[in-house]
Structures are given as structure tokens and as C-alpha cells.
């Protein structure tokens, strides 16, 4: 039998994930109402949370479940953070008929998805394969490919942190146009 603390933590985790998925579903439904439901919308907004939910089952390894729960919790945090993000004046919906909370939830999901796709998953896949190779276990990806993937991952994040972050700060009004490239 689980102690009360574990039961409460599990309940809070499930509640957070449910709220996030519901908020994401409502935002995507609003987007689909305006733009039409396409197969791309279903793939981008439906498959990753569904796959993550499937990976939380007990038959998967502990690390896989941790990555899946982290992804789902990050989506859930969007339901909490969205009202706070509405206070930033330069974050306005791209489509005037899309509400600010729906726009920000879609923006939050896109950010979480991009971070997981380009940050967490390469580390999880490549480092996991390198560890398995070091232990003499069967591997799915050649170690040379893993090192090349980690190098590419490092270059991508270096470029993102050096330029992408500055562009976002400029777009939000925290930097002048010349400060992006260090000209001012």
C-alpha cells in the first residue's frame, strides 16, 4: 500500500497533466475552427501527447516513463502559466479571432515540443545508446552517429542560445534592434 504522500503526489501529477491536455485540446479546437482541421494539426498536436501517455505505462523503462511524464507535466504547466503570460503586452495572437489564452497555450505547447524534440530527446537517445555501448549491451544506433548527433545537438543549442534568445527578447520589447547583433 502506498503512503498518503505518494498518493497525493500521484493525484496532483495526474491532475496537472489532465488540465494541461484539456487546455491544449480546447486551444487546438479553437485553432481548427478558424483554420480548419488538417492532418498536420492532428500529427503535431495529437500524436506526441498520445505517444507520451502510452510511454507512461509500467511496461516501459523507468527512464522512458520519466521523460514521458516530464513532457506531459510541461504541457500541464502551460495551463498554469498561460494567464501569467497574458500580462506580456507584445504577445498578441497571430489570428485576431483566436483568444489570447488559446494562442498562448498553443505557443507554450510549441515551445515545449521544440525543446523536447531538439533538446531532451537527442540527449535521451544518443546518451542512452552510448551508455549501453559502454556496458556491452546491444545498441540501436552506431556510437559514431551518436557522437555526431550530440555534436549537432550542441551546435544547434549554441546557435539558439546566442541568437534565437536575443531575437525573442527583441520581439518582446526588451532589446533594441541593433542590440540583437551587438551593434548598439
Kindly give the count of domains. 1
The helicity comes to over 70%
* Biggest sheet details: none
Mean pLDDT: 82
Oligomer: single chain
Residue ranges: pLDDT <50 for 5 or more in a row? none
**Based on CA inertia axes, which overall geometry fits?**
globular
Mind explaining what this structure looks like?
This protein has 184 residues and is an all-alpha fold. It has one domain (4-141). Helices cover 74% and strands 0% of the residues. It has helices at 4-35, 39-54, 62-85, 100-135, 143-171. Helix 3 (62-85) packs antiparallel against helix 4 (100-135) and helix 4 runs antiparallel to helix 5. It is globular, with a radius of gyration of 19 Å.
Keywords:
184 residues, single chain, mainly alpha, 5 helices, globular
How would you concisely characterize the structure shown here?
This protein has 5 helices and no strands.
What is the strand and helix layout of this fold?
Blueprint lengths: L3 H32 L3 H16 L7 H24 L14 H36 L7 H29 L13
Helix pairs in contact: 1-3, 1-4, 2-3, 3-4, 4-5
Amino acid at each position: 500500500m502506498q503512503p498518503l504522500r505518494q498518493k497525493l503526489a500521484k493525484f496532483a501529477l495526474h491532475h496537472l497533466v489532465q488540465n494541461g491536455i484539456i487546455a491544449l485540446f480546447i486551444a487546438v479546437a479553437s485553432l481548427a475552427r478558424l483554420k480548419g482541421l488538417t492532418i498536420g494539426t492532428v500529427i503535431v498536436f495529437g500524436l506526441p501527447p498520445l505517444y507520451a501517455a502510452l510511454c507512461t505505462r509500467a511496461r516501459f523503462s523507468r527512464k522512458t516513463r520519466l521523460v514521458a511524464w516530464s513532457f506531459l507535466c510541461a504541457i500541464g504547466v502551460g495551463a498554469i502559466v498561460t494567464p501569467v503570460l497574458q500580462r506580456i503586452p507584445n504577445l498578441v495572437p497571430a489570428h485576431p479571432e483566436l483568444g489570447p489564452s488559446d494562442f498562448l497555450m498553443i505557443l507554450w505547447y510549441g515551445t515545449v515540443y521544440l525543446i523536447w524534440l531538439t533538446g531532451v530527446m537527442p540527449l535521451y537517445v544518443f546518451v542512452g545508446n552510448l551508455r549501453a555501448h559502454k556496458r556491452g549491451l546491444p545498441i540501436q544506433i552506431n556510437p559514431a552517429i551518436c557522437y555526431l548527433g550530440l555534436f549537432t545537438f550542441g551546435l544547434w543549442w549554441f546557435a539558439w542560445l546566442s541568437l534565437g534568445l536575443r531575437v525573442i527578447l527583441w520581439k518582446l520589447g526588451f532589446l533594441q534592434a541593433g542590440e540583437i547583433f551587438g551593434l548598439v
